[in-house]
Amino acid sequence: MMSIDRYAVFGHPINHSQSPFIHRCFAKQTGQTLTYEAIDVPPENFDRALADFLAHKGRGLNCTVPLKELAFQKMDQLTERARFSKAVNTIIVQLDGTLLGDNTDGVGLVTDLVNNHQVTLHNARILILGAGGAARGIIGPIMAQLPASLYIANRTVSKAEKLALEFAQTGSIIGCGFDDLAGFSFDIILNATSASLSNQLPPLPDDLVHSASCCYDLAYANTATAFVKWAKAQGAAQCLDGLGMLVEQAAEAFYQWRQIRPDTQKVIAQLEAKRKIG
Ligand code: NDP
User: Fold this and answer.
1) Assessment of whether the complete model's pTM goes beyond 0.85
2) Average pLDDT over residues 195-214
3) What is the distance in A from the centroid of ligand 1 to the CA of 124?
4) Residue 34 to residues 3, 251, 252: CA-CA distances in angstroms?
5) Which residue has the CA at smallest separation from atom 29 of ligand 1?
6) Catalytic residue ranges
7) Is the confidence at residue 1, as pLDDT, over 90?
8) Which of 34, 73, 37 lies closest to 52 in space, CA to CA?
9) pLDDT in tens, 237-269
10) For the residues 159-170, what does the mean pLDDT come to?
11) Is the CB of residue 194 below 6 angstroms from any atom belonging to ligand 1?
12) Domains recognised in the chain with CATH numbers
């Protein structure tokens, strides 16, 4: 009997994950025969869950909060973008059974901005809010687009300064606190803090936004996030959330596993329709 390739997302909690819906859509659309499930894996069970998954036809995994840094430590090999991110959101089980860790978050964000929303990163003045795992994952792909400058502002200033230093060889990057942003404005502001998840907003000075600015919250929700609401009130030209990034990072993972690129537009439209009805 032919076995069906098995894929899954590990996370904790995982019940609200959209990844099974997204990957099943991709599989149907591209005629790929596979299964994709969501598995609740607390960090202390990661090793056991991974071994069990691999022993039962597991061909590839996504890892989400709080497992990305843990997955990073368990890989046999890493892609360059995963090595820079120090986090793995996609695991590829190679033909010899070894595990290749990748990070598709940054490319997912850049693809959403550039292809889906026609945002130009080249020569732009870009601000990232936050200096956690998501911020680390997006810096490399953003710098590859050759922006004019990149500021990273964080509540814990030392973390922003450390990140800026770590990526200094990729271009002009300044790490700072939120207060240091007073008097500056940016073409693109990316909220990579987790503040929106608790309906909060980082303490941002006025005048960060100009009339052509694009504001993008990596978080997404069924209704406008606190940051998207703030961006609208500031008069930003584009006020976006991370739904497109979610689909694009998944598409890149799917490509790494199956060497076929799904049509993301259809899936983004389906998720947009789903969230309108709550
Ligand atoms: P981390 O926990 O690694 O980092 C959280 C960051 O948010 C830190 O910089 C922290 O600052 C900051 N922060 C938290 N609360 C506040 C607050 N109230 N005010 C100001 N700063 C705050 O989280 P991640 O980096 O993994 O995730 C960040 C966001 O990105 C989440 O919303 C997540 O959902 C989203 N994301 C979206 C993806 C997508 O596909 N759309 C993919 C990956 C992430 P400090 O250092 O001072 O604690």
Assistant:
1) yes
2) 94
3) 23
4) 9, 15, 17
5) 194
6) 68
7) no
8) 37
9) 999 999 999 999 999 999 999 999 999 999 999
10) 96
11) yes
12) 5-103 (3.40.50.10860), 106-243 (3.40.50.720)
